[in-house]
Amino acid sequence: MELKLKDIKKDPRINSFIDQTDKYMHSLGYTDHGRRHLDIVGDRSKILAKAVGLSAKDQEIAAISGWCHDMGNFLGRTQHHYWAGMLFSQCYINQADPVQISRIIQAIVSHDKDDLKIVDKITACLIIADKSDVHRNRVVIKNNKKIKEDIHDRVNYAVTANHLNINNKKKTITLSLTLDTKVTNIMDYFSIFVERMNYCQKAAEYLKYDFNLNINHTKLA
Ligand SMILES: [Fe+2]
Ligand SMILES: [Fe+2]
Fold first, then answer.
1. Is the CB of residue 54 less than 8 Å from the CB of residue 62?
2. Alpha carbons 51 and 99: distance in angstroms, whole number
3. What is the reported pTM?
4. What pLDDT sits at residue 64?
5. Lesser CB count within 10 Å: N end or C end of the chain?
6. Hey, what's the torsion of the CAs at 121, 50, 131, 208, to 10 degrees?
7. Sign (positive/negative) of CA torsion 29, 129, 203, 68?
8. Residue 169 has pLDDT above 70, yes or no
C-alpha cells in the first residue's frame, strides 16, 4: 500500500502525536510546531519537489515527511526528529510499502538543525520548507511583554509576509519576507536566522539552485 498525505491527516494516532506536541511546545513557550507549521512545511516540500522535477511518488513522500516532521517534539526537543521517525515507523511499518516508509523516515530524521543531513532531493526540499517558515502567526501570544522579551518571538512576530518562489529558468529559490522594523530590526533577524538561511542555501545548492533572501524588497543574499 502506498501512503497518501490525505489519509495520514485523518489518522487519529498521528493527530494525537501532533496534539501532544502542541501542548508540550506551548508549555515551553515555543513558537508553533503544530498544524499551521506542518501544513506549510508539507505544502512547500511538495511544491519544491514538483518544481525540481521529482516524481509524483517522491512529491507525496516530501509532503508526508513535511507534515509529520515535528510530531515527535512531545517526547523531547533535542531528539524530536528521531522520535518522529520512530513514531511514523511504528504506525505504518506493517501496512505500507517499506521503501516508501524508509524514505519518509529518513527525510524526517534529517531535518533537525543540529543534526542536518542532506542525503537526497527530498531531504533538501524538506529542509528549505522547514527553515523558511518564519511568520507572525508562529508566535503563540500570551501577552505583549513576552513577544518583546524573547528574540525568537520578536523576530517571528515581526515577519508579516513570507513568500517562497522557485524560478526554474533562473534556477533560483527566493524567500521574500516583509519585516516590521517597529517590532524588531534586521540585525535581530540575522542574529538568529543566519544559521537557518545557511541551511536553506546548502539545500538549494544540493538541488542545483541559488538561494536568495529578500527582506523588505532588498536583496540580502
Ligand atoms: Fe523540527
Ligand atoms: Fe519544523
1. yes
2. 23
3. 0.95
4. 98
5. N
6. 50
7. positive
8. yes
CA 99 to ligand 1 centroid distance, Å: 23
Residue with cell 499551521: 36
Which residues, at least 6 apart from 63, have a Cβ–Cβ distance to it below 8 Å?
5, 42, 43, 45, 46, 49
pLDDT tens profile 124-147: 999 999 999 999 999 987 666 567
Which run of H or of E encompasses 162? Answer: strand 159-167
Instruction: Compute the distance from residue 37 Cα to the ligand 2 centre, in Å.
Output: 7
* Residues less than 5 Å from ion ligand 1, measured at CB: 70
CATH fold group of domain 5-219: Hypothetical protein af1432 (1.10.3210)
b or e along 14-52 (b: 16 or more beta carbons within 10 Å of the residue's beta carbon)? beebbeebbebbeeeebbbbbbebbebbbbbbbbbbbbb
Alpha carbon of 83 to ligand 2 centroid (Å): 14
CA of 70 to the centre of ligand 1 (A): 5
CA of 114 relative to ligand 1 center, distance in Å: 10
Quote the CA–CA distance of 36 and 100 in Å, as a whole number.
25
89-138 pLDDT per residue, tens: 999 999 999 999 999 999 999 999 888 889 999 999 999 999 999 999 99
